[in-house]
Amino acid sequence: MGAPEASSGDHVPDDGFVAVAADDELWDGEMEAYDVGAAEVLLVKLDGEYRAFDGICPHQSVSLVEGTLDGATLTCRAHEWSFDARSGAGVNPRTACLVRHAVRVRDGQVLVSRTPLPATEPAH
Predict the structure, then answer these.
(1) How confident is the model at residue 119 (pLDDT cuts 50, 70, 90)?
(2) Domain span including residue 60
(3) Pairing mode, if any, of strands 73-75 and 68-70?
(4) For 18, which of 6, 54, 66, 97 could close a Cys bridge (C-beta 3.0–4.6 Å)?
(5) Does residue 43 lie within any of the structural domains?
């Protein structure tokens, strides 16, 4: 079963963001994957803030939503690569990192950018 798909009617054409979830859909410490166009995006809620990343582990292309989120540590189920879910930075190995997407909350909806952020740009 694939990730829930963001409706094309939810796309905000002027700024490249797509509504993927209601603002109250995830509790702190939860994550969910959504199809945004042709890509799977992982949405994580920590400390009341949303973060979004490409939903596929950079190691062997396993869906990260199948892994675990323990505090701020996201661990892939396949080979236990782990990442800081606040930033996407690699924990093990440190050289790995997740591709981030900008997130906005507007009118009770969580919006995720279709386009990943450059590696040096802040997510908020």
Answers:
(1) confident
(2) 8-66+99-116
(3) antiparallel
(4) 6
(5) yes
Residue 56 sits in a domain whose CATH number is: 2.102.10.10
What is d(CA 8, CA 90) in angstroms, rounded to the nearest whole number? 32
d(C-alpha 37, C-alpha 64), whole Å:
18
Total number of domains in the chain: 1
- Kindly report the backbone phi and psi dihedral angles of residue 65, in degrees, each rounded to the nearest multiple of 5, phi listed first: -65, -20
Question: Would the pLDDT of 72 be above 90?
Answer: yes
Q: Is residue 89 one of the residues assigned to a domain?
A: no
What DSSP character marks residue 7?
A: P
Identify the sign of the CA torsion 53, 57, 61, 64: negative
